[in-house]
Structures are given as structure tokens and as C-alpha cells.
Amino acid sequence: MSLKFPQPAGPALARLTYQQIYGRDVRTDVDGDMVVRDEYLGWVMPVSVNEIDYYGVTFDHLVPADDPDPEVLQINIIEIEDDGGEYANKNLPFVVDPAHYTGKRVLAVPRCCQKRKGTQDRMRVNDCVAEREQRKLEQMECKVNDDFGGVANNLQLA
To answer: What would the pLDDT profile of 91-144 be if each residue is shown by its tens digit?
Structure first.
């Protein structure tokens, strides 16, 4: 399945997260202040593969372009309404009252505050960014080769 990158919600989610973390809007005049780099689309089965059940977006904040392994802060938005808070109460080290969230607010929890252990968020996230960058380069190379091949096929040797 080939989907547009980023999904329409990606930059909006990144901006909202940025505003909550840094307490200000993205500074468009500061190069690299916020750069959407990757996204994660997840599906919980059995669900139609056309319906995204989980979405994550990766953005850089003042990360040098040549840094392949920046620090990572992963924040998960925990769904409350579909399961009445069951997932949240199973995976968080504190009790979540669904009445505080359902139809009112979003529960966003840094990964470090969850019960899930043994994860390698930094490596996994940075590897996903690197894979996306590699695919983008390969697509550009294919386009150049296609364009060049078309020119070469139209040339005639004298």
C-alpha cells in the first residue's frame, strides 16, 4: 500500500506536540526548528487495512542535518473512547479514569512513563527515518534514470 507522506494529520500533530513541549509556535524563520521526518501507521487487526488505528509522526527540532542518530522523545496518544480505558490502565503505571478524557481531551504519554520495557525507541525511530530517506533517494534516482533513459533513447548516433 502506497500512501502520501506525510499524511494530512502529520504536520498538524507535529505542530501541536511541538507547542505543548516548547510552549510556543514553530518558528518558521529558524531553519530546522521543526522538520517532519517520518510517520508510523499502525493497524490493529481485525480492521480494514484502509482504516488507520494508530498514527505517529517524527519531527526534528534543531537537529543538524548530518546527525544520523539524534535523541528521541516518543509520546504515545492513548485511545480511551474505544475500549473504555482498558489499554491505558493495562499499559500505564497510573490509573486512568475514562470519564476525564472521553469526548474532552487527549491522553498523550511519553514512552518512558509507560510499562512497556525493553524498547529501543531511539534506534527504531532513527532507523525508520533513515529508511524513508533512502527510499526517497532511490525514487529520485529512478526518476533521473527514467528521464535520462528517455533522452538517451531519442538520441541517434551519426
So the answer is: 888 999 999 998 888 888 777 667 665 566 777 777 888 888 888 888 888 877
CB 60 within 8 A of CB 32: yes
Closest CA to 38 of 58, 56, 55: 58
* Residue 11: pLDDT over 90: no
Cβ-contact 118, 65 below 8 angstroms: no
How many residues belong to the chain? 158
Contacting residues for 88 by C-beta, under 8 A, at least 6 apart:
78, 79, 80, 96, 98, 107
pTM over 0.70: no
Write the CA distances from 47 to 50, 78, 85, 88, integer angstroms: 8, 18, 19, 20
Query: Where do the domains of the chain lie?
Result: 9-153
